[in-house]
Amino acid sequence: MGLLLSGLLAEPGLAEKVALDPSQWGDEAGEKCVSCHAKASSGLAAQWRESAHHAAGVNCLDCHRAERSDPDAMVHEGQVIATIVSPKDCGRCHQKEYEEQQGSVHAEAFTLIEARLPALADHVGGPVMRAASCDQCHGSRVRVQGDGRLDPATWPNSGIGRINPDGSKGSCSACHGRHGFSKAQAREPDACVRCHSGPDSPDKEIFEASKHGMLYVAHRHQMNLEAPEWIAGRDYTAAPTCVTCHMGAAGKLPSTHDVGMRNVWSLNSPVSKRQFLVVFEDGAKLELPEDAEIPKRGAELTRLDGTVGRVKTVAPPERRRQAMSMVCLECHAKGFTEGFMNQFDAVVELFNAKFAHPARTIMDRLYAAELLTPTPFDEPIEFTYWELWHDEGARARHGASMMSPNHAWWEGMYVVGRNFYARFLPEARAIAGEHAAELVEAVISKVGAHQWLNDPQQTSAILGFAGEGGR
Ligand code: HEC
Ligand code: HEC
Ligand code: HEC
Ligand code: HEC
Ligand code: HEC
Ligand code: HEC
Ligand code: HEC
Ligand code: HEC
């Protein structure tokens, strides 16, 4: 068994309750903040008063206190404070959650888009759109003005991979609404859907349309969301939520703040690949597609942010699937779970082989023949191709992975097919002109799943297309 999974299985249920050190909080100078802020911002103070932090004696200053040397430190009513309470600051008391969150794909969400797709935001929209859209989900790079105040072009922001003034990544209040910071609230699907909804990651819509979503709504009162521990199969059985499958404890599988750990595929790329998970000695992680060179233990590797790390362990895709399946097995049988996973994987493989590979090959050939400019999004077919994998392609794959037949087909693969046959191919042929045979047809003719195109007799009767007798 790989180190990763054996690590995952070592402790029953929630990982060991970390003993918090009470000498870390209860700073008396923090009492003054409350009395004044009860007037200055009464809603905020009231939320804190109802929180687990208040109950445990953790006050405003315990979180907001700063060192004078911090880039965002400011003197406020006689105390040195910072407005941003970063994951690193929370990590002073919650080290386990901090380390898992820093090592997750969530923490990389800003780093990822900084290097990719600026044209989508800047050309199609305009640079101001980044702050109001991409960055609200992915995170911003928060800048500090001279007096310790935060640059309003980059904050407010609670994006999932925000780069904080202290260098730490992300924002714990992305999921834990402030100032309640409740775990019951974060167990709700609603904690995720601000970002996981819409064309490219329609997980909200998919969950709601699934049998799990149906039962969650009907049996929410049996979900035991307020429980101190929340282990699927023990503390609740009515239905799984996003958190159950991607973060929650189930049987012997402990909970984790690393949301990507249990996922095999890259479902949001032009062509999906199974992914290895490389875990570094310093806790950071990196996903590598199955066709990359997979490093050995002890090897050194450059990561997304440019730093070099030493490999501690590598989890192959099968181990990640095993972890996800352990969640299902709390409520379903083995054969049921395997059967479902087979159906899901088959949809991803179909998408890859029939649409994703051929479309990408055709686009590559059109660029190579200089029939398209290298500038993205200045030609209609670039939108057609983008939507093929990013919108309908993502809906089909996400729909199949999370049990919504509507999204797998009507909102997903059906639209992929319609786009491919009725927009993408005609546009590609028109652009290729006299070279269509080599740039387009040669690619399509190699794919068995497109052979029906050459056999119109076979289906003409079905939909009434052939006239009166059709149905
Ligand atoms: C005498 C009243 C008073 C006291 C005491 C006080 N605050 Fe404030 N604080 C305010 C007011 C009023 C504002 C809003 C100022 C503004 O609008 O820029 C504010 C703003 C803030 C901000 C936002 C700063 C920004 O602009 O980003 C934070 C964070 C904050 N206070 C935390 C604290 C903490 C922590 C303490 C205790 C150490 C504290 N406050 C004590 C009145 C007070
Ligand atoms: C558990 C840690 C924690 C505690 C306790 C806490 N805060 Fe905060 N506070 C945060 C976080 C996190 C943010 C979000 C800042 C960011 O990261 O963007 C924040 C933001 C703020 C802001 C600016 C955001 C806004 O909505 O205007 C103010 C003002 C503030 N806190 C005041 C207070 C006061 C007053 C108290 C005590 C009644 C308090 N905080 C207690 C963590 C805490
Ligand atoms: C509503 C929230 C939201 C907005 C707005 C948003 N994204 Fe995303 N983005 C996501 C989510 C969620 C994912 C992860 C999808 C998945 O893995 O299922 C994602 C994935 C991505 C990826 C793929 C990352 C990977 O895993 O390889 C890129 C690139 C990206 N977004 C860029 C952008 C850009 C550029 C913008 C603005 C033009 C933008 N996004 C706007 C939520 C958002
Ligand atoms: C992606 C959403 C998300 C983010 C981001 C997030 N959390 Fe959580 N957190 C949750 C969920 C969901 C739970 C409840 C998990 C459970 O009970 O299975 C939780 C639970 C917790 C708990 C209670 C753990 C326990 O065993 O009682 C703490 C403490 C916590 N989070 C701290 C943090 C800190 C610190 C950060 C930032 C470093 C953070 N969280 C970021 C979703 C999130
Ligand atoms: C100074 C120490 C300290 C800091 C800093 C701190 N916490 Fe806590 N946190 C605690 C204590 C103590 C508890 C209560 C533990 C318990 O009840 O077992 C707690 C409980 C929690 C819980 C569980 C709440 C519930 O519903 O049971 C969450 C979630 C959480 N903290 C998130 C955060 C986040 C996010 C930050 C940073 C914004 C943060 N904490 C900063 C000490 C801290
Ligand atoms: C503030 C926005 C935001 C919130 C809230 C959020 N996410 Fe994400 N999530 C993202 C973005 C952006 C990505 C893509 C990041 C990347 O690929 O690096 C992502 C990626 C993911 C992934 C894909 C990991 C992979 O393997 O590629 C999963 C699973 C996920 N989130 C689950 C959740 C769950 C569960 C919650 C709620 C408990 C949640 N997220 C809350 C923005 C968010
Ligand atoms: C019954 C379990 C289950 C529930 C409930 C569930 N998911 Fe998933 N999710 C999965 C599985 C299985 C996959 C595919 C994993 C793989 O690639 O092997 C997946 C894939 C994803 C991905 C794509 C990751 C990637 O590789 O690009 C995201 C993002 C995601 N889920 C977020 C969510 C959100 C948000 C919710 C709630 C609205 C949710 N999930 C509810 C099981 C679940
Ligand atoms: C907390 C319990 C729980 C967990 C965990 C769970 N499920 Fe379910 N699931 C249910 C319930 C309850 C139903 C509804 C059964 C029914 O009425 O047919 C269901 C229904 C389904 C269905 C629809 C079956 C049908 O006959 O229409 C599929 C597929 C499914 N689950 C797959 C999964 C997979 C895959 C996982 C793990 C990634 C998983 N479930 C995790 C409780 C759970």
TrEMBL record:
Residues 28-64 form the Cytochrome c-552/4 domain. Signal peptide: none annotated. It comes from the Bacteria. This is Cytochrome c-552/4 domain-containing protein. The keyword Ribonucleoprotein does not apply. Keywords: Signal. The keyword Signal applies. PANTHER family: C-TYPE POLYHEME CYTOCHROME OMCC, DISSIMILATORY SULFITE REDUCTASE SIRA. Pfam families: Cytochrome_C554 (PF13435), Multi-haem_cyto (PF13447).
